[in-house]
Design brief:
It contains one helix and nine strands, in the order H-E-E-E-E-E-E-E-E-E. By secondary structure, it is mostly beta strands. It has a single domain, classed as Porin (Beta Barrel).
């Protein structure tokens, strides 16, 4: 069984990412970086100090493997790492996501959503559930194969004892998709 899994893990990326024709469906891989900002409570407009209005409060790293059905819809399995520095919280979300392209032009405007679980892989990682909604734009390269995605995601994490604690955030993301 291990030999079969190793063979599949080698062949799928080769078959999915080595074709030269324009593809409208098939397997893809996506890597993502995101950041969440909070308003600086010490910021004042009138004073000239080195304080900024927005401060980073969370950093997100995401890996996705998925399948694009057609020019408009795709589904992905995401494994993500989130660190919220203000609260000193670590999360490891594993979630399914669905993305739908609203307009089928050269560059696409999309909406997406996701639902999954927060894995408690250690003492410092919180267990719970995750909900996500987002929007953004997908910008293709010259041969319409690979693309950059940029936009905003709203996420809601429920964790703690009987998932009574909640953390909501809006993040700016930048992703690269290999198709």
């Amino acid at each position: 069984m291990k030999k079969i899994l190793c063979l599949i893990s080698i062949l799928i990326p080769y078959l999915a990412f080595t074709q030269d024709s324009i593809k409208s469906n098939g397997l893809f891989y996506k890597a993502s970086l995101g950041i969440t900002f909070t308003v600086n409570e010490n910021y004042t407009i009138t004073e000239e100090d080195d304080e900024s209005f927005l401060n980073p409060s969370a950093f997100l790293v995401n890996n996705t493997i998925g399948y694009q059905f057609d020019n408009r819809s795709l589904i992905g399995l995401n494994l993500e790492y989130n660190y919220h520095s203000r609260q000193d919280l670590h999360f490891m979300p594993l979630h399914l996501s669905f993305q739908y392209n609203l307009f089928d032009f050269d560059d696409e405007l999309f909406i997406r959503g996701g639902y999954g679980t927060l894995l408690g892989i250690g003492k410092s990682f919180e267990k719970g559930t995750l909900y996500k909604l987002g929007t953004g734009v997908r910008i293709y390269d010259d041969n319409f194969k690979n693309s950059w995605l940029i936009g905003f995601d709203f996420s809601r994490k429920r964790f703690g004892y009987k998932q009574t604690e909640k953390l909501s955030s809006v993040s700016l993301f930048l992703e690269y998709m290999v198709f």
